[in-house]
Amino acid sequence: MKLVFAAALLLSASAAAQAEDHLFDELRFGASASIQSGDEHEDGVFPEVTLFFDPFGHNEAIGIQKLVRPRIHFGTSIGTGGEATQVFTGLSWTADINDKLFAEAGFGGLIHTGDLDDDGDGPALGCRLLFHEYVGLGYRFDAHWNVTAQVAHSSNADLCAGPNDGMTRAGLQLGYKF
């Protein structure tokens, strides 16, 4: 009975959100790979999912107003082959180059499952909470679909005791804008 009630509540909340506005602004999914070398390189491919929210009205803003109205992002990069999984959140700024091309930058934080100390296999990250920033260049196929090439870096900025090798990954994400 609790499951039926929860499902009904979720459906009614979802319908209400869709009637007024979309809960999510955009959903992206794709994959990345480590672009670091030597002992700091992470093996494997990292499936990624990122959700974007627009509570500040970024989509309605014009010109320079877009800078003071970022979107909120929340996502994950899933470690394969024993490498670090990341859960990240932060703010994202998108600048249109023209109707089809856009540039994007984001800044925030993450928590990860990677190595804290140097064991010779992958980056030594020093602490669980890291800063997370990314830059990307994207192409819009139409009003809903886009693809983004992205480079993301995470590190502790030497704010915690221990090593700070950081993680740097590059990849592609396919996006759907609601």
TrEMBL record:
Q: Which residues form the signal peptide?
A: 1-19
Reply yes or no: does the keyword Signal apply: yes
By what name is this protein known? Lipid A 3-O-deacylase PagL
Q: Taxonomically, which superkingdom? A: Bacteria
Instruction: State the UniProt keywords alphabetically.
Output: Signal
Q: Which InterPro entries match?
A: Lipid-A_deacylase-rel
Mind telling me which Pfam families this protein's record contains?
PagL
